[in-house]
Amino acid sequence: MIFFEVLLSFFFTLAICLITFLSFYLFLRKTWRREYVKWDMMIDLLLRKAIFFHEDNAGQLASIPVTRRLKANLRNKRFCKQFVKKIIAAKRNMSGRHGENLRHLYIQLGLDKKALRLLESRKWHVRAYAIQQIGTMGLKEQLTRIYRYTNNKNDLVRIEAQIAVLNLFGFEGLRFLDIISYQMTEWQQIRLLKELSTVPQAELTGIDKWLTSGNPSVVIFALKLVRNYHRYELYENTVSCLDHGDASVRKQAISTLTEIYTESTSEELLSRFDSETYKNQIAIMNAIAVIGGVQNVSTLLGYLGAEKHEMKFAVARALVNGSAIGLECLINDSRSTTYPLRDMIPQLKSEIKW
Amino acid sequence: MVSWQSFLTDFFTYGLLTYSLLLLSCYIFIAVFSMGEIRNYLRKNSFTDYGVLAGSRQAPSISILAPAYNEGANIIENVRSLLSINYTNLEVIIINDGSRDDSLSKLIEVYDLYKADFFINGQIETKEVKGVYRSRKAVYRKLIVVDKQNGGKADALNVGINVSSNDYIVCIDVDCILEQDAILKLAKPFLENTKERVIATGGVIRIANSCIVENGRLLKVKLPRQFLPRVQTLEYIRAFLLGRMAWSRLNGLLLISGAFGAFDKEIVMKCGGYNHKTVGEDMELVVRMRRYMEEQGIAHKVSFIPDPLCWTEAPSTFKILGRQRNRWTRGTIETLQMHKVIFFNPKYGLLGMISYPYWFFFEFLAPLVEFFGFIAFIILASFGLIQWSFFLSLLLFIFSFGFLYSVFAILMEVLTYNQYKTNRNLLLLILTAFLEPLIFHPFVVWSAIKGNIDLLRKKNSWGEMTRKGFTKEKV
To answer: Does this UniProt record's set of keywords contain Membrane (chain A) (predicted)?
Structure first.
């Protein structure tokens, strides 16, 4: 009984404490929100001033006038956080002189030094935040400090460091691919490719080396670079990836070849069909359906005997799209009048029409 | 010598006390454990730009499967809402599960559909497909409408799986309202892991009653005005924000809500798709997928994200709510029965040693223990074998913990997503938390008992779910 009563009182007291905390937090948040609105205007004004700031006569970028109040506010953690957030967002959307002005303001206010201090934090999200600032604000002189994070054990720190290096040095920044030992996730690769798409096109070297990397995810990423940037000169290197030990690398190689194919690509793919995994066999058939150029139709006709309908359909599609006489051969095949080929052919015909 | 009366009394008192303390400890563990997971997610999320994924050619290809049965009243708006999702590699498959209303004819007319030549790879056995429709308009090229014989939700989803051509499937209730970035958020976990294969992802479902909805889009979030939907709002916050996040951190999730979840199609196919012999097909599929992965020795994960991604209408009458909870109970028991080999089987690792036993003892048994324990205590107290004051103290103790747990969930909601912003709403939620154990909880327990009885009677119907429709904005 006493045990229950003690626990009961404890639970109710705790619930009341939580409700009190909740009310206090809501009150605080309301106050903060009012402050944020006020600060927002102040920050916007300064950022606008900075963006349209002109150099002095000597061509040197003079100090951007900053009010004493704003400087004092920067000592407030929440204000500082809001300021950094806004200046980073603005810098991302600005290039040229306007972007340079924002960078100048960032350094003038000593925020770069603050970011460097944050870089030493033990908390991963604080470090990632600092790296993001350094990359976006273009603090190239900090390369050595953030470069070591490109192979950090924390995935978020790692990806932010890699993105920052790309922001600072463009394609050249990709040299971290030489050293990374962790596997790159699909998400990481998508982010890097997106970041690269905003970098001015330049000579991209080193892909051949990455195609032979011991880290399979680096090879996959390199294959994506070959595909996205149509690096035809790396065709042979890509074909050699078809014999890689990792099935996902081979699958990416098949996909890449659909963008840089030659007359012999279909035959190259078909020659490896039997030794491939089921998933990659489907990928090969899908690739052939895109690139065509099948010389030996009878090989494909042979694969129509596959057990699974999914494979049969992929082969039939490859046949129809991969060869000029494919559809005719398919229709003339003895199996075309029976299920499932009988049901597949109308769809394949309609796809051609479409 | 101990008399049989005192043995009985001690058995019930100490047995029930031990069970209650164990259950409460689990809840405390879940609450504490979920906090870290939510904090980590929010921190990571602050670095995420989902726009990167929306237009990327490298984004995973996704098929949305939406079964529809007699949804003629809202089907056009619902499909429009799905088609407006910003995602490149997407197809939207609407499966008309033998509707008796004008759903199909409406779709054909509005979306300019024609019956297409379409080969269906019937890897999963289903009821007969009458036709596959596509649009003549290029703007609706992502849309596929499948007309089939009525066979229930699981059968309809299986048809969708057979028709889909993409790598991942997202199964949703056609009348659910998705957040604009819901698919992007659901797709991301599949791309993030290199050590474990992510086989399914789920997101938070929220209650849309009283919210303002226009053209299939959620315009304004409001706390439900009626008590029943409001108490379910609280229940969902507790279940999703605390429960599922903790289980996700443990990698022991057994359930991705049938209203909205994404799955790796390859694994779904290998497992044979949805099981139409149970009314809990959503849970059953996840358990079967996990079991398959364990048996194959493949490291895997069922992921869960705390963002509110999908809004649905909750039952607003006791009659409909009772049917829903009855079905949920039957679904849980059927799933546990089908996979009983997992129970405390070390071969299945965490699944067998923690997740399954938890569901067995604290999801399936909890209402039974609560119901029969309550009756037993009343009998014992009536015969003077225990004191009424003891019984009351025990009840108050459970009540106070339930209230504390709900308040903690409300606090977590405010600290994270804060969907119900005003002080009035929070006050209402706290009041609801106070009333829940008195009104809502006993009804849910009673529905679960009825579910057990219906299962013994071999009743396997879904029970009709009538919906009132969402609130539209006043012009």
So the answer is: yes
Instruction: Quick: pLDDT tens for B37-96.
Output: 999 999 999 999 898 888 888 899 999 999 999 988 889 988 998 998 888 899 999 999
User: What is the distance in angstroms between the Cα of B257 and the nearest Cα belonging to chain A?
Assistant: 25
Residue with tokens 């079905």: B327
Evaluate whether residue B209 is within a structural domain.
yes
Per-residue pLDDT of A225-274, as tens digits, reads: 999 999 999 999 999 999 999 999 999 999 999 999 999 999 999 999 99
B56 lies in some domain: no
Is A271 in contact with A245 (CB distance < 8 Å)? no
Number of domains, chain B: 1
**Which of A22, A186, A308 lies at the smallest CB-CB distance from B410?**
A22
Q: Using an 8 Å Cβ cutoff, are A141 and A115 in contact?
A: no
Which one-letter DSSP state was computed for residue A170?
G
B163 inside domain: no
* pTM attached to this predicted model: 0.91
Instruction: Respond yes or no on whether the N-terminal peptide bond of residue A65 is cis (omega within 30° of 0).
Output: no
pLDDT per residue as tens digits for the range A146-156? 999 999 999 99
Amino acid present at A256: T
Q: Do A191 and B52 touch (CB under 8 A)?
A: yes
How many A×B Cβ pairs under 8 Å? 107
Domain boundaries, chain A: 206-260, 267-354
Q: What is the mean pLDDT of chain B?
A: 92
Report pLDDT for B288. Answer: 97
Please tell me which of the candidates B119, B393, B411 has its beta carbon nearest to residue A18.
B411
pLDDT, tens digit, for every residue of A2-52? 777 888 888 889 999 999 999 999 999 999 999 999 999 999 999 998 888
The pair of structure tokens assigned to B341 is: 């080999």
CB contact under 8 A, B59 and A313: no
Burial of A70 (0-12, 13-18, 19+ CB in 10 A): middle
Q: Which residues of A touch B396 (CB under 8 A)?
A: 4, 8
Q: What is the predicted ipTM?
A: 0.88
Cβ of A313 within 8 Å of Cβ of B121? The answer is yes
For an interface test with B, the pick among A14, A149, A182, A187 (most B C-beta atoms closer than 10 Å) comes out as A187
- Tokens standing for B181? 């970035």
- Cis amide bond preceding A340, omega within 30: yes
Asked if A310's CB is within 8 angstroms of B117's CB, the reply is: no
Query: Domain range holding B3?
Result: 1-47+176-475
Contacts of A315 in chain B (CB under 8 A): none
